[in-house]
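Progress against Task 2.4 (sequence-to-structure conversion) is shown through the following example record, which the project officer requested during the mid-term review.
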Amino acid sequence: METALLFRDDAYLATCEAKVTGINERGGILLDQTIFYATGGGQPGDTGNLERKNGDIVEIATTVFGSSKSEIVHVPGENAPVPEIGETVICHINWEKRFGIMRIHTALHLLSVVVPHPVSGGQIGHEAGRLDFDIPESSLDKFDLTEKLNALISGNHLIGSEWITDQELADNPTLVKTMSVKPPVGSGRVRLIRIGDVDLQPCGGTHVRETQEIGEVHIRKIEKKGKQNRRVRLSLGPAPTN
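C-alpha cells generated for the chain above:
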C-alpha cells in the first residue's frame, strides 16, 4: 500500500497524525502517511516514535522502503509495543537529528558546485557528511573549499523543489551529478532541488529552505581513495583551532 510522503512537500513537519495500514512479516509498521524519511540516496532513515492513544510510545529505530519506493516501513525498536492495524497514531521524528541532516545534505549539494567533478559516492549524517569525486589529478585545498562554501551559504539562496518528466531528465543528462546513485525513474516524473541560480539536480532528500540555515561549515579532510577518487569530508560549525 502506498504511503503519502508528507516530508516531500514539507521537510519541516516534525509531527503528524497517521493511521496504521499494516504490519509486515518482520514487524515493520506501515502508515497511510508519514513524515519519516526512508533510507536512500545516501541519506539515513529518520528515527523518532509513534504515540498511541493509550499512551504507549513505539520507538522507531529506523525507516526503510518496503516493496516499492512509495511504501515506507517504520522499523520499531527492540521490544517496542506494536500498534494495531486501523489504529490512529501520532508520529514524532527526532527533529534535531533530521534538521542536522537537512543542513548537511544541502551543504553537500553546494560542495558539488565548488568541486565541479562527477560524484562517485557520498554519505550524509546529522553533523557531518562526505562526497567522493572522480578527479584524475587533484590540487583540492580544504581551506579554499571552506571559504567558497561559506560564501555560497552566506548568499542565502532560496531552496525549492520542482518536477520534470523522465524524458526531460533523459534529454538533460548533465543534471545528474552522481555516478553511483541514479535518480529514480519509472513513475513518469523526477524531483529536482533548486538552490537559487547556483544549483539544480535530481534529489528525493530533505533540505533547508534557504542556505543561511546551514550555518558555518568547514572541510575537515580531503583523502585520496584511489587513482581518481578524492573523498571530501564536511562538518557543521567552524574548523577547530587546534
